[in-house]
Amino acid sequence: MTYQAPRMDALESRAWLSLVWTAELLPSALDLQLQAESGITHFEFLVLGTLQQAEGASLRMSDLASAVNATMPRLSRVVGKLAERDPLGRRAFSSVPRTSST
Nearest 5 degrees, angle CA 21-CA 25-CA 27? Predict the structure, then answer.
């Protein structure tokens, strides 16, 4: 049986449901592949990539949290975890508290 989304014709419904299924399934598939190949999660990859693209490869934690759509507690845990592995140089500046950089 084929499911059809309400208020959509068959083609629109197929396109919409394909997008929704991709959005649901892709993150976990990417996560599994990244963990297997490099030992980091998709979110950790996003954090590192965002820092790498930032001017001076440095952002305040609050700006980084906003850029990656994360809460401060979640981001602090991830940055701490990355800092333990040392691909991320974590430093604090007295004038700019809670700054992270690559």
Answer: 130
Q: What is the CATH number of domain 11-101?
A: 1.10.10.10
For the entire predicted model, the pTM comes to 0.66
Q: What is the DSSP string of 24-75?
A: HHHHHHHHHHHHHHHS--HHHHHHHHHHHHSGGGEEEHHHHHHHTT--HHHH
Q: What is the pLDDT of residues 61-75, one digit of tens each?
A: 999 999 999 999 999
CA–CA distance, 89 with 47 (Å, rounded to integer): 13
- What is the overall mean pLDDT for the chain? 82
Q: Give tens-digit pLDDT for 12-32.
A: 988 999 999 999 999 899 899
Name the residue among 61, 21, 69 with its Cα closest to residue 43.
69
The secondary structure of residue 101, as a DSSP letter, is E
- Domain positions in the chain are 11-101
Which two three-digit tokens encode residue 67? 């850029």
